[in-house]
């Protein structure tokens, strides 16, 4: 017996023991003539019945009629009718002829072509696109989608011939400040906007980013590894603290909002070097204005993003989920033991990766 039929029967018996009923999801739309014989079954077996009748009639006219010949002539009709009356063990509206003969033959004889391609596939093309075979679609890479040509000299170049610098600015939590302090900060911000040179066009952006605790994790891991005098209880507490840092890193709700000042400037074919220098001077001016905006405890800091930091910022903006995953740690790193030489080589490799610059 077929394996699928046995599974269906076992499932039916199990549901019967549990007092459950398997309701059929498919609605049987066939019209029945008598018992389980539907009108569709009659039309399917009719050609075979006519063929058997012609054979029997021809034999009778030739004087060769015998009962054995009649049974043999009508045997195709009987086989087809039998296949039509054997239902599927689960889907009762399907006959043996459909799911065992017709469907299997269609699956075996089907002709399918599978395409692996970027962009619009051949199967999805319009008829006029197939006729215009000489017009090849140019595939776009990620730079064309983002509108960015390259990242260099601590700025990025757009496809509209524009150079852009990004300045990261620290923040002040106003929700916990006194009303007078808030008023003083708002007044300083108003002065900052009024003193900004008119020729400098800025855009203020606030972007949520996943918290990166990698340096914090590595610093405490080295500190705990160097604590050779720690007893078993202290080592368990240190290991638990590192695991707690790892769980915080993996939490998707653990994000921070960073503030940026974006400065852009158009350039022509021969003025790129000049515009680069002007953009650098404007970024320095904006940095000084931001750092001089507030004094004392609320003093702000500003830093121009380098090539690597610009790349990470764009990566976070277009693929936040993977940026979150890439900052996580592997728990399997805890029980691993390495020698001093391997540790020194891995540390040198990691420091080289941290100093990598995109040019």
TrEMBL record:
Q: Which stretches are transmembrane?
A: 42-63, 69-86
Record key words, sorted: Membrane, Transmembrane, Transmembrane helix
Please report the stretch or stretches of sequence annotated as the TraC-like domain.
Answer: 157-307
Question: Transmembrane: is it a keyword of this entry?
Answer: yes
Give the matching InterPro entries. TraC-like_dom
* Record protein name field: TraC-like domain-containing protein
Taxonomic source organism: Bacillus thuringiensis
Q: What is the lineage of its organism?
A: Bacteria, Bacillati, Bacillota, Bacilli, Bacillales
């Amino acid at each position: 017996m077929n394996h699928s039929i046995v599974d269906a029967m076992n499932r039916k018996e199990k549901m019967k023991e549990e007092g459950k009923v398997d309701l059929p999801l498919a609605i049987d739309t066939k019209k029945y003539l008598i018992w389980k014989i539907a009108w569709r079954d009659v039309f399917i077996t009719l050609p075979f019945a006519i063929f058997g009748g012609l054979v029997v009639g021809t034999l009778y006219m030739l004087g060769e009629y015998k009962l054995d010949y009649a049974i043999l002539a009508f045997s195709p009709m009987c086989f087809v009718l039998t296949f039509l009356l054997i239902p599927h063990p689960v889907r009762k509206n399907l006959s043996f002829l459909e799911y065992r003969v017709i469907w299997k033959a269609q699956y075996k004889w089907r002709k399918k072509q599978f395409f692996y391609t970027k962009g619009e596939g051949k199967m999805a093309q319009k008829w006029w696109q197939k006729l215009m075979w000489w017009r090849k679609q140019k595939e776009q890479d990620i730079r064309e989608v983002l509108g960015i040509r390259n990242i260099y000299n601590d700025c990025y170049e757009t496809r509209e011939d524009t150079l852009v610098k990004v300045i990261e600015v620290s923040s002040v939590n106003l929700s916990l400040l006194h009303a007078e302090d808030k008023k003083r900060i708002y007044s300083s911000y108003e002065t900052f906007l009024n003193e900004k040179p008119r020729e400098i066009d800025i855009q203020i952006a606030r972007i949520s980013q996943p918290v990166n605790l990698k340096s914090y994790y590595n610093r405490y891991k080295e500190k705990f590894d160097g604590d050779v005098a720690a007893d078993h209880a202290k080592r368990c507490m240190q290991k638990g603290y590192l695991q707690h840092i790892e769980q915080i890193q993996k939490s998707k709700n653990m994000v921070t909002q960073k503030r940026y000042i974006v400065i852009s400037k158009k350039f022509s074919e021969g003025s790129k070097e000049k515009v680069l220098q002007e953009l650098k001077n404007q970024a320095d001016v904006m940095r000084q204005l931001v750092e001089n905006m507030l004094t004392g405890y609320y003093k702000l800091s500003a830093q121009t993003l380098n090539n690597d930091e610009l790349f990470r910022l764009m990566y976070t903006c277009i693929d936040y989920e993977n940026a979150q995953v890439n900052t996580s740690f592997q728990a399997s790193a805890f029980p691993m033991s390495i020698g001093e030489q391997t540790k020194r080589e891995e540390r040198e490799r990691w420091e080289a990766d941290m100093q990598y610059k995109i040019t």
